[in-house]
Amino acid sequence: MKVLIGGGTGFVGRHLEKALRQRGHTVQLISRSKGADRVSWSELKEEQKLPECDALVNLSGEYILNPFRLWNASYKKDIYDSRIGTNQLLTDLVTKATTRPSVWVSAHAEGIYPRSHHKTYDDHYQPESKEGNYGQQLCYDWEKSAMLPSDVTDVRHVGVRIGLVLGRDGGFIQQSYLPFWLGLGGTVGSGDQKFPWIHIKDTANIFVHAIENDNMTGFYNAISPGQCNSSDFSRAFGAALNRPSFMWVPSFVIQLMTGRDRAPFILEGSRIKPTRTLESGFQFEFEDIEQAMVDIVNTK
């Protein structure tokens, strides 16, 4: 299959491209600039035509916990446009296309779920209206933007709700690796908040599974079945590095550092199960946080 990937140069995109090529698929990327095996977003907007492909994937999204961006109107616009704006462009081009891809896979986030210490949610959950905190409202618009018109019946849509992706070469682990390696890692906030994680290898493989499995449609969780809380993760990370992880960062410090809207992404969590993902036949390679962190730390 020929797979066209928006956001393919990012953390998840790099691993997905590698996994797809290993399975014999060809890959073309949508990025900010043209290049070999690439088409730019501006080119798509100008030409109003989707390159011919068998599968279309969108992983685009400005990193919401970017420590180098101030939490202001400009940053919020970038977060919104990089998710909702790119989905709207792609769904519009799919609708207009004379030759459409057979499957459209859109990336989303576990932030769609209400924050709760006690209630458990799975991928059957679908909010009826836009409500909750900033993250839930953003995720609601994000999911709605990926929906194709009802008369487009020849394209299978799969939405993947991704948890906190753990891998050596990007995201949260790359940001926090040095503090933990120096023995400065530890609990953030209460430490009891749920930590809906997933290994980068499983993340990429779920997207491959969604592309190749004709029976998949609707929303699926890319979240490990192995539940843990924030303290469990910190201990596992420290143990994998053979470093202590006894530091504690109070909630108010996180709120001051990240802002009111971003703090819940760190300080609050949900119990989430990948029910539909498992029912689809997908097998997670990493279900245990200790096993996952050992693999990540030993990855070169």
TrEMBL record:
Domain of life: Eukaryota
Residue ranges annotated for the NAD-dependent epimerase/dehydratase domain, each copy included: 3-214
Pfam families with a match to the protein in the record: DUF1731 (PF08338), Epimerase (PF01370)
Domain DUF1731: 249-296
InterPro entries: DUF1731, Epimerase_deHydtase, NAD(P)-bd_dom_sf, SDR39U1
Name of this chain's protein: Epimerase family protein SDR39U1
